[in-house]
Amino acid sequence: MSRQRTFDLVIAANRLPVDRVVAPDGSSEWHRSPGGLVTAMDSVMRGREGAWVGWAGETGEAPAPFEESGMWLHPVPLSEEEQTTYYEGFSNDTLWPIYHDVIVPAHFHREWWQDYEVVNARFADAVCEIAAPGAKVWIHDYQLQLVPAMVRARRPDVRIGWFNHIPFPPVGLFAQLPWRAKIIEGLLGADYLGFQRQADAQNFVRAARQLGGCATKGETVTAKGPDGGERVVRASAVPISIDYAGLDELARSEPVQERAQEIRESLGNPDIVMLGVDRLDYTKGIRHRLKAYEELLDEGVFVPPEITFVQVATPSRERVEAYKTLRTEIETTVGRINGTYSDLGAPAVHYLHQSYPREEMAALFQVADVMLVTPLRDGMNLVAKEYVTCRHDEGGALVLSEFTGAWHELHQAFVCNPHDIEGLKQTMVRALETDPKEKRRLMRALRRRVCEYDVQRWADRFLSNLESAPQRPGRSKGD
Ligand code: ADQ
């Protein structure tokens, strides 16, 4: 019997970085998913023995572990029911709304929680099985908040980090969760907790103090270890970024430039193209954006076909009720706007409920005179960073909500409060009317920021914080 392979670096995330693609003849193969996390981890994994633990995307029995592009992939099974309870239920209908300011009500079901615990334990088992002695374990996101303590209980030898891709809520909202103490305890199994914004890290520290009864000082929380001894856990901000060099190169490539021209022509060569690109999620502020646009049309400030608005909305969480409602609302609004303001062959809104390859997204970004990123709450928002990265021509303008993590880095954007429709309208007009020379200066500064702080830098910073995080009270801390 072959011995279990073990690894110095183990990533755990809800999803594996691959999708099974089935050919017309029924044969199937794994394709790498295009996300930024995959690119980030690629560079981290290079030169290391790295493994990734996650769900392969299909319910039922999990495929056997396999190697893909130099990475060992270790699938964790999910049953049909667990997909509903752990994933769509507890992760996306309990935690997601609580962590995003309760834009829609959160639903609490004890069975969902029970399955969340069960699935987290399954992930922890898989991690323990393949982590080499003294390995680094990097756990991702809100679906796996119990894994740090579960791993620590069995493997005190490994170093455990957790990164939250979404906001961490203020204590007043977090307190609503019936299982809040268990979640704090789960997270405190880590050595280092990384967040998108300083405010998120502070919210966690406050929750650990007020709800978890822990002593805290600055960025650190003192937790009880499984042996009864004290451990110190550090929580700080390490904002995620994108592969600037890779995307910049793609955006400059001839096929993408040609495609950008083609898109503009197929839109009827309007004077102004506005663009929104989001998962179809109520956190993204798509409705607010459409409302502002519609009012500007009503008032005759915007007059199609000189102006058009392209909204790309990736299908998302389509079985969760709040997402079904949102989709109906958005499609009704788009229908109403187009019914009133479109001409034959010249819609006032182009609405695309589809996913596109990176090349197409890069071309679209180059067409957008104004990019509308207007979330009500967003951990970071990578679209904002991707847009400026694709603007090597220094053209375009970014309208960015102050409720995104991205706003804390991209200060040269045209900032907006999406709840303030009047203010949002004024910002959209200002983004168009600002002197082009000034806009180029702003775009240059935005690009510089993303270039300097790219995804590689994010991953390096996370790992170095993990390495230097104090374990015992009194130990020195990292940056
Ligand atoms: P998301 O909520 O998914 O991520 P975001 O950061 O905007 O939000 O990332 C979406 C990604 O999907 C971007 O790379 C974008 O280009 C891509 N995308 C969107 N629509 C697409 C389409 N139709 N076709 C193809 N690609 C599309 C969560 C958090 C964020 C945080 C990220 C990373 O909610 O706040 O920034 O994780 O930490």
From TrEMBL:
Signal peptide: none annotated. It comes from the Bacteria. InterPro entries: Glyco_trans_20. Gene3D superfamilies: Glycogen Phosphorylase B (3.40.50.2000). Pfam families: Glyco_transf_20. Belongs to the glycosyltransferase 20 family. This is Trehalose-6-phosphate synthase. It comes from Janibacter terrae.
